[in-house]
Every structure is written in structure tokens, then in C-alpha cells.
Amino acid sequence: MAVEETIAVVGLRSDKPSVFVDKIKNQHVRLLVIPAEEGEKVSLNKFFKNNLTNAEIEVLDCARDGCWEADIITFLDPVDPEESLLNRIKEVAVQKPVLFIFEEASAEADAKAEKLQKKLSNSIILKIKIDDEKERAIISGTDPQSIEQVSEMLNRAGFTVKA
What we know:
Layout (H helix, E strand, L loop, with lengths): L5 E7 L6 H6 L5 E6 L5 H10 L5 E4 L3 H7 L2 E5 L6 H7 L7 E6 L4 H13 L4 E8 L4 E5 L3 H13 L3 E3 L1
Parallel strand pairs: 1-2, 1-4, 2-3, 4-5, 5-6, 7-8
Antiparallel strand pairs: 6-7
């Protein structure tokens, strides 16, 4: 089956599994994983090698390259995107959906999403709250086409989506 989307996942940690990545790796997508920390590349490569997946997965060192290739860019909470990272990807993220995915609603998560909105002002920022127990995703954003695109992706991954 053909790959449906290319998704850059910024901020994955080998010691903190992501419900989003766990679900999406079973889809026919291409995942470009940019680790939260430099030393994580080997651990993440081992993790994906030892876990069955339908996705094509590549762990990258360069966030700019991964975001340039991606159709959708995701940031996983608790990563706080650094100014330098956002400046490097700003021009390759133009008009792309940029997802901020979190599991716990908080003022801190809202502040991180707001930071993405300010620094990536020419991107389409969507906030997604994932409820692992109910396998539900709640999407908020202002672009109906991107909300629909991301809703379809999350539905295929097994989430019930509320926009």
C-alpha cells in the first residue's frame, strides 16, 4: 500500500512513549522522527526496529530537513520548542499543518501552542488533546481543510475525533 502522508515528529523521547506515535506508526505513513535530545537517535532506532510497524520510519538529526519533507509537522508535549529550532524550520513550515499534541491540558501546554503560533505565523497551527483511555482526540484550530485532513489521519489511526 502507498504511503499516505509524510509526518515529521519533533520531540520524541525513548523514555516517554507517545500515544500519537504508537497509533500512527501502524498506518501507511512516513514518519520522520526528530528526537527531543541528540543522544536519543540510537535508542529510537532500536525501539522502532524492535516494534512491528506499517509506517516507513526514519530517525533524523536535522529538524529542518525533516520538516521540509513533511506534509504535516507535529510537536509532542512536553517538548518546549526552542527559538533556534523554530527559526530554522520557519520557512519550510509555511502553509503546512503544525500540530501541537498534548495529553494533559494546562496553562503550560497553552503557552507552548501560543509560542508555535507566534513563531510559525505562516503555518497552520492545530492543538490536539489526546485522551489515551478513551482513544479520543480533540482538535482545535482555524483552518477547516487542515482540521479535516488531520481528523481523517487520526480516524485511520483509531482515534475518535472531535473538532
